[in-house]
Amino acid sequence: IPYRSLLPQGVDNLLVPVCLSSTHIAWGAIRLEPVWMQTGEAAGFAAALAKKQKITPADLDPELLLRTLVDRRHLVSFFNETKVDAKDPRIPAAQYFATKGFFHDYNARLDEPLKKATEAVWRNALKDLRAGRLDAGKVAAAVAKAEMQDAPVADAPMNRGDALLRLYEMK
User: Fold this and answer.
1) Is this prediction's pTM over 0.85?
2) Phi, psi of 161 (to 5 degrees)
3) Which of 86, 88, 122, 159 shows the greatest Cβ crowding within 10 Å of its Cβ?
C-alpha cells in the first residue's frame, strides 16, 4: 500500500490508516484484518518518524519509512518460504526490494545461486532506483524474463539473498 494513500489531500498533519484512499479493486485486499493492523503500525511509525524529524507526515520521505519498517521486520511483501521474523539478515533486503519489483513471484529463493541475467536486471534497477526513475512493474517483468533463461550463475558465485543484502547496504 503506497504511503501516499494514508495522506488525505490538503491536510499535512494527518494520517488515515483505515479510511485510506484506494480503488475498489485494491479495497478487496485492504479490508482484511491483518492489513488493517499492519497499516496502523506503519502509520504509527510514520507519525513517530515525522515527530522525530520535526516535520509533518506529508513531508516524510516514504523511503525512510519503508526502510524503517523492513529493518524492524514489518511484513511489506509476502514470500512463500520466508518468515519476516526469522533471524536471517537477508530478509529485510528481500522485503525492501520486493517493493521495487526485484521479484516476479512469491518465492524469494534466498539460498539459490544468482543468475547472471537476474544480477544484471537487479544492478540496472538499483541504478534506476537511485536516479529516481524506477518502474517496479518493468523491473518485475525483466526479472521474470531473466529467470526464464537457462543462464549460468554470476561470475562471483553468490546466492540471491547475499546479493540482495549487498545491494541493500549499497542503497
Assistant:
1) yes
2) -65, -45
3) 122
